[in-house]
Automatic annotation (TrEMBL):
This is CENP-V/GFA domain-containing protein. Belongs to the Gfa family. PROSITE patterns: CENP_V_GFA. PANTHER family: CENP-V_GFA DOMAIN-CONTAINING PROTEIN-RELATED, GFA DOMAIN-CONTAINING PROTEIN. The keyword Zinc applies. Residues 10-124 form the CENP-V/GFA domain.
Length: 143
């Protein structure tokens, strides 16, 4: 079984352009994470697409830095501008890409709100996209 999503080629970068990437292969539509960790990391809700780790190529990754946010998760960001770019479980099951770093048009759409039990009290989720109280992998926040 392959990674879910439509095969496509997408590109993206951080704010300053020092870290660029290309995805060649299936890409999962966008999930919005409302957990406390994502909200602190991104200063609000985090939105991620995902692909198989072997389908993403990071160009000149010397500016890319990794932060191990939990025993099983690492997060990639630009060491120059600080843009949050990637979420990568150490088990290698998938590679998540911050949706705001993708070049448009993406052809992707928001398909799930997750960790809604931890959402901020200062906003409402006011669309018809399905909601999940926890995370589909472990029921908790992303870490």
């Amino acid at each position: 079984m392959g990674f879910p999503g439509e095969p496509r080629q997408l590109t993206g970068s951080c704010l300053c352009g020092a870290v660029r990437y290309t995805i060649r292969g299936p890409v999962r539509d966008i999930w919005a994470c409302h957990c406390r960790f994502c909200r602190r990391l991104h200063s609000h809700v985090a939105a991620y697409a995902a692909c198989a780790p072997e389908d993403i190529a990071i160009e000149d990754g010397r500016k890319l830095r990794w932060y191990r946010s939990s025993p099983s998760i690492r997060r990639g960001f630009c060491g120059k501008c600080g843009a949050q770019m990637f979420y990568a479980p150490l088990d290698g099951g998938h590679f998540s890409i911050a949706a705001g770093t993708l070049d448009e048009p993406t052809g992707l759409k928001l398909t799930l709100h997750l960790c809604t039990a931890q959402k901020g009290d200062y906003y409402a989720i006011a669309d018809d996209v399905p909601q999940l109280a926890g995370h589909p992998r472990n029921g908790a926040g992303n870490g």
